[in-house]
Amino acid sequence: MIEIKYPDVLLDSLENGHMIVDDAFNVSYWNRWLSINTQIPKEEIIGKSLEKFFPQINYKVLYRKIKTALTIGTPTFYDVNSAKKFVPIERNKVTTSSLRLMQQQVTISPYIACENKVMISIYDISELFEAKLLIKKEAQKVQTLNEKLEADKEVIDKNIMVMKTSTNGIIRDVSSFFCDFFEVTKRELLGKNISMFKLSDTSDVIYRDLWETIRSKIPWSGELQYKTSKGQKKWFLARVVPILNELREIVEFSAVFHDITNEKLLAELYITDPLTKLYNRAHFDETINFIAKNQRKSDVDFILAIVDIDYFKRINDTYGHQVGDDALVCVAKNIKKSLRENDLVARWGGEEFVIMLKNVTLDEAQKIMEKVRSNIEKNIVCHDIKVTASFGLTKYRENEEPKETFKRVDDALYEAKDGGRNRIVVK
Amino acid sequence: MNLEFNEEQIDALREFMNVSIGAATASLASLLDAFGTMHIPKIEICNSSELSNKIESTVDLNSMYYVTKQLFTGKFGGECIFLVSEASATNLGRHLYAIQTPSCDEVNDAVIELTNILTSTIVSRLTQELGIQVQFFVPYLHFTDAHSIVDDGDISKYSKIIIISTILDFQDQQIKGNIYILTKDEAIESLRALIDEKLEEIYG
Fold first, then answer.
1. Which of B68, B69, B117, B134 to mutate to test binding with chain A, by most A CBs within 10 Å of its CB?
2. B8, B27, B112, B203: which has the fewest C-beta neighbours closer than 10 Å?
3. Does the beta carbon of A81 lie under 8 angstroms from any beta carbon of chain B?
């Protein structure tokens, strides 16, 4: 073991304050750190009582702590978080600081027990304390944010239909509002497949588009039709978002639904002919004008057809309007069932219907219309009158105004009528 | 790692603890001018996950507590926890600072001081009995509810712990506190070895 020849040099080299005092608080050692930080040189304080220089210290407590250290032979400590500073030392930190005075850890260690002397060591823990205050402040911020988040979460849960599913459509979570709307409990939904809400008679085109879009990691927005637990059909505006992990892999899907059933019903009412349930003239006009204006390649390839029930006035006059209406409904159903899903049919007015047959040639259109004509002739009988219809057909020409197309198709229909009715004329 | 204590080892540890607690009571009487009693220590070895429940079962769940934790290290190392209810801590502050309404800082410092005396005396005496030395670290204090005295996350890394617990009671001053000395896996093994050495030394 080496003998430390110059303990003064050793204690002066430490980055902490060290003093030796006895139980009467007389200072017998004062290191360099203390001289610099308190601005009291050792020559001035050694041999004198600490009380003269630092009257704010509670000497009753200090005495007890000195006695404790001397009696039990181990260090005693002051509370490190205390706002009261053992020795007030100004901090010279220029940048932002929450502490004006140095935060201290004070340890009283037994030094020479027989002389009742202890060593009081002062450690600067300001940076640590500041970090602790900062963490506390940040933790409070996080707590406030969490509380806000929880409150927002509750608002969302109670007022918005939200669903989370796994990548294969298994329901992982739903909001309370979703459950209330669909009249199911959360428990009944978790673990089930989203397809339980799918309507069997709804086109797969939309679902396919949805699935392909979200699998490409792109959010999908659109209208969906679902059924409630009681089988009610409902329309939703939906936004389905794929949730990605840090490797950009899809981990789940999150969907938000907004019930648009009422808007949808109103909109349908606005564009539907109340008798035949086909689209009305206004909707057909809007569609054909939109196509003519935008001239999209995929839209402009269509055949326009007009169907007119032969001798309709005679049916009305002979059997009354109710029978006439029945005939209109039967013809409308017949036309509708002979067409494809993406063809458009509307009641044009009176006993006339207008049809847009998409992506077919005139020959193909003529065959389809012939089937319709034949079906009407064979199947629709009002009392003892066989119902027939005449057809005019024409192809829409690119960049053509719709009125020009209608002029041609009207001419074709006129020819069909003039030629003896119950026939098709193509222009 | 063998963490089981046999009867003989438990008896010896209990005896060392009795001596240590006796020394602590004497220190308290002379240093704080208060005559207190300390219960016979209870020694348990349990899984770390049980600690929280064990502590909760000994405190009043409706009170707020001053919790001081002080680490000690050496051949036998661990952590001392001293719990004192808000009411007891205020009484302690009144007694040590000789004022009717002690400030928050004064109550904190009084609790730290009592912890210091208790842990230093008990652990120092115990380690003195075992013939080893330990170093004490600065005690840290926090004020919390009875359910948050031990955060389960704090002790998840320990598999086995030894709990030596006792109750300190100053009837005149209405101050009551619970003391726990906790030590974990390697330190338990080390404690067992030290007890064996001591028994060998005494009985040959």
1. B117
2. B203
3. yes
- pLDDT (mean) for A182-199: 86
User: Bridge-partner residues for B176, per DSSP?
Assistant: B169
Instruction: State the CATH architecture for A160-264.
Output: 2-Layer Sandwich (3.30)
Q: Is the pLDDT of residue A306 over 90?
A: yes
Find all residues with CB under 8 Å of A279, minimum gap 6, and list them: A271, A272, A273, A344, A345, A346, A347
Q: What is the CATH number of domain A7-124?
A: 3.30.450.20
Quote the mean pLDDT of chain B: 86
Class of domain A272-426: alpha beta
Helix (H, G, I), strand (E, B) or coil at B87: helix
**What residues of chain B, 32 to 71, have a C-beta less than 8 Å from chain A?**
32
Would you call A341 a catalytic residue per the annotation? no
Neighbour tally for B183: CB within 10 Å: 23
B143 in contact with A at a CB cutoff of 8 Å? no
Q: Is any Cβ of chain A less than 8 angstroms from the Cβ of B113?
A: yes
Q: Which of B96, B108, B138 faces A105 most closely, judged by CB atoms?
A: B138
At A94 the pLDDT is: 76
pLDDT of residue B1: 62
Chain centroid to Cα A329, Å, comes to 45
More confident position, B183 or A292: A292
CB-based contact A68 B113, cutoff 8 Å: yes
- Res A2: pLDDT: 63
**CATH 3.30.450.20 domain extents, chain A:** 7-124, 160-264
Q: Nearest CA of chain B to the CA of A80: how many Å? A: 8
> Is A73 close to B140, i.e. CB distance below 8 A?
no
Phi, psi of A424 (to 5 degrees): -120, 135
Q: Please check whether residue A71 touches B, CB under 8 A.
A: yes
Instruction: Pull the structure tokens for residue A249.
Output: 């892999």
Residues of chain A with CATH 3.30.70.270: 272-426
Locate the chain A residue with the closest alpha carbon to B121.
Answer: A72
Q: Higher pLDDT residue, A4 or A416? A: A416
Q: What is the pLDDT of residues A377-422, one digit of tens each?
A: 988 777 777 899 999 999 999 999 999 999 999 999 999 999 999 9
The three-point CA angle A405-A406-A409 to 5° equals 90
- pLDDT of residue A244 exceeding 60: yes
pLDDT at A199 over 80: no
pLDDT higher for A8 or B99?
B99
Per-residue exposure over B84-122, b if at least 16 CB sit within 10 Å of its own CB, e if not: bbeebbbbbbbbbbeeeebeebbbbbbbbbbbbbbbbbb
